[in-house]
Amino acid sequence: MDEDYDVIVLGTGLTECVMSGLMSVSKKKVLHMDRNDYYGGESASLTPLEQVYKHFKMGVPPPETMGRGRDWNVDLIPKFLMASGKLVKLLVHTGVTRYLEFKSIEGSYVYKGGKIYKIPADEKEGLSTSLMGIFEKRRFIKFFQFLQNFDINDPKTWHGMDPKQTTAKEMFEKFGLDDNTQDFNGHGIALYRSEEYKSAPLIDFVERGKLYYESLARFGKSPYLYPLYGLGELPQGFARLSAIYGGTYMLNKPGCHIKYGEDGKVIGVESEGEVARCKMVICDPSYAQDKVKKTGQVVRAICIMNHPVPNTKDVLSVQIIIPQNQVNRKHDIYVSVVSHTHQIAAKGFFLAIVSTTVETSNPEAELQVGLDLLGPIEQKFVTVSDMYEQKDGTESSNVFISRSYDATSHFETTCDDVLDLYEKIMKEKFDFTQVNLTQNEEM
């Protein structure tokens, strides 16, 4: 390791791997290290199923009824990709899509009044859904058409509202939408995590809504994608990419201690008595605990089932968002379900994860509304994880730290973190106009 690098990346979570790819593509000399002997960090995919039981200290092997252990690829923190979202664009930009195969998620649902409802995918579904009454449907269709036709460069499409001054709440009031319709639009379509969406500028809400429906148009069933064989394929794809650009990956490196000069700036990373010199470190919070602050906790329940989620027309994969308003909470509850069709479980089995931001001293109980939607559960693994982010001002040491994974069941917030890190490091925003491949090349 007696060598100088532009960047040393510590940890193989998705954020670190995307940053490694972006730095490599930007012609920087990259060394990527992890104390673990596997890719993915806290968001790893575990296989075979025996490894999952061992990870959660079950003390017994999985039952034979769950099929062959090697047919399972269990993501500890599964998240979906928006088909037209930022992560897909980043994957295209770095060329990692050539190593991956994706399959769409079959349904996108929202919770209201104790039941789940499919989020309308088009005007026809908007008119037939039981999510709204007949008069509300007409108002929603007008709003839906407004979303579809909105063009920031054409004031005629603004309906007399200022995109940057008008709030989303004022926009809803203009279309006469009731609280329930606002709820499923704000949380199920625009993917806001709290009531903040009501005070957000109209333009922010509209862009999120348009992203949802543009993603939906790509594959027709839902706006979400999931890689075959699980999310563990993503960091491994970046490892291949890094090698192409001359980057070096080292797994199973104990220690990985960041070293600083007298001026407080990073000078390298030490492992097994050797120091690799560098100008900058990008890492997950576990590698720089003195430079992070705790921001909360996430509770997650990974559930193995032998049946689809009830009341979803037996789809083999689904996302369900439970808006916090519906269950008297401050944060949404997320339910994501994948199955053997994504090559992550034995045939006939489903993996569901229910997650939320912890608000009480009894985190598992906070998931109950989501767990109740699943029906009988064969096995459940519950974790409570601390969330961290970098302390203000510590970037002056040239150490840049990713945020912990939040409770959301999609990657949009993780992408925001990647782009934020990129801007801090490169002193410029990532230029998405450079990403211009056809759909066939993308997927």
From TrEMBL:
Keywords: Cytoplasm, GTPase activation. GO terms for biological process: protein transport; small GTPase-mediated signal transduction; vesicle-mediated transport. SUPFAM superfamilies: FAD/NAD(P)-binding domain. GO terms for cellular component: cytoplasm. Its main location: cytoplasm. InterPro entries: FAD/NAD-bd_sf, GDP_dissociation_inhibitor, RabGDI. It is found in: Cytoplasm. One of its GO terms (molecular function) is Rab GDP-dissociation inhibitor activity. Pfam families: GDI. The keyword Transit peptide does not apply. Belongs to the Rab GDI family. Regulates the GDP/GTP exchange reaction of most RAB proteins by inhibiting the dissociation of GDP from them, and the subsequent binding of GTP. This is Rab GDP dissociation inhibitor.
